[in-house]
Amino acid sequence: MQRLVVCCDGSWQHPGQETPSNVARLAQAVLPGDSIRQLVYYDSGVGSPHIAAPPRWSERVSETVQNCLGGVFGAGLEAKICNAYLFLVLNHRPGDEIYLFGYSRGAYTARSLAGLIYCSGLLRRDAMTRAREAWALYQGPDKPGSSAAKTFRESYAPRPYVTFLGCWDTVGMRGIPNITGVNAINQIVNRAHAFHDMVVNREIGAVRHACAIDEPRRALPLTDMEPHPASAPGQIKQAWFPGPHGAVGGGEKRHEALSGLALDWMAGEAQARGLQLDWSRLNRGEPRNALADYHVGFGLLSLLGRQARTLHLKGAFGFHRGVRARWAGRPYYRETRTALHHFASQERWRDFPAPQTRA
C-alpha cells in the first residue's frame, strides 16, 4: 500500500513565491513514509508564472496575459483536473490511500477530481487511452449511478475509495468567481467551470473545509460543501476561521500568523487519518495568532464590490477556536462583526480545535 497525495494550489500561487500557500507548505511537509510510501503531486495555481521565465519580451507579455486570464477566468482548469487524474491513474494500485487538497480555485480542482473519480472511476493503466471518455462521462448528463457510468467503471475504471479531501476556502457560485457581479453573466463567462455536482460523494472518508469568515469581496463568495444524504455522520467538517481569503489559504506574508491556524487544523485532521507529516516544515518558526491584523488590498477583485459572507452553522459548520479568541480579545472585532453576536450570545460557537496529533 502507498499514499497518493494530490495538492492543487490557488490562483497565481506557485512554489517560487517568497511565502508559500498552505497547499504548498503541506506538500513540502509530506514525509516519504516509513513502511508506507507517500507520493506527492503538486500543481501550481491557474494564472501562476512558469518557473523558467520566457527569454523574449514578447513571450513575457504573452505569458502575463495568459496568467491574468487564468487567474481571473480559470483558463486551464480542465487540464489541471485531468493532469491530476492521470497522476492517480499511473500510480494508483488497489488498496492505496488517496488524499486530495486544494485552495481557492485549486479547491475547485480537488473537489472536481473527487467528483470525476466518483462518476467515472479511476482508469486502469491499460485503459488510459479512454481518459477523454472518462472526462466526457463526468461532464455529461449521466449521473454516477446511471447504467452508462456503471458500465464504464466495470469495464475500465474501478472506483477507488478517497481517504481524505481537504480544501481551503472554495470560492464562487458553483465554483465560479463572481467576476461581473451579475450571476447570469458569470454563468456564461465561466460555463465550463461550474461544479457538475455540489454534493460531496459518500465514497470519501473525511472531508474538511477551512472557510474565511471575514472575506469582504463580492467576487469571492464561499462555495459550501453539501453532504450526501447517505453520508456517514462526521464525514464533513466545515470550520470558520478569522480573516479574509488569503488569511485562510496562505501565500501572503502579512497574513502568516492567521493562515497558520487553518494550516495546522487541516494538517492535524489529515494526520489523524494516516498522513505522515514533518511538522517542522509546517511551522517554520512563524507564531500563530488569532488576534493578528489582516488587510484586504485594493486589487481588481476589490474593485468589483463588497459583500459580507453569510454566517451559518448549516452543513456541518463550526467555528475554529481562533474565532472565539479573536472575539474575546479584539473589541473592534466585536463592534464590527455584528453577525457574530447571534452565535456568541447563545454560546453556539461549536469549536473545531485541531487534533493533538503532532509528531
Please count the helical segments. Answer: 14
What top-tier CATH class fits best?
Answer: Alpha Beta
Average residue-wise pLDDT: 83
Shape: globular
Q: What percentage of residues falls in helices of 4 or more residues?
A: 25-40%
Give, in spatial order, the strands making up the sheet with the most strands: 2-1-3-4-6-8-9
Distance between the termini: 22 Å
Compute the CA-based radius of gyration.
20 Å
Number of strands: 9
| Sheet of most strands | 7 strands, parallel
- Say what the CATH topology is: Rossmann fold
Instruction: Provide the number of structural domains.
Output: 1
Fraction in beta strands = 5-15%
Please tell me about this protein's structure:
The chain has helices spanning 22-29, 57-73, 77-91, 105-120, 131-139, 147-155, 183-189, 245-249, 256-271, 279-283, 300-303, 321-329, 331-336, 341-345, and strands at residues 2-8, 37-43, 97-103, 162-168, 199-200, 204-212, 226-227, 236-241, 317-319. It is an alpha/beta fold. The protein has one domain: Rossmann fold. Strands 2-1-3-4-6-8-9 form a seven-stranded parallel beta sheet, with helices on both faces. A two-stranded parallel sheet has the order 5-7. Helix 1 (22-29) links the parallel strand 1 and strand 2. Mean pLDDT is 83; it is low at 59-74. Residues 3-268 form the T6SS Phospholipase effector Tle1-like catalytic domain.
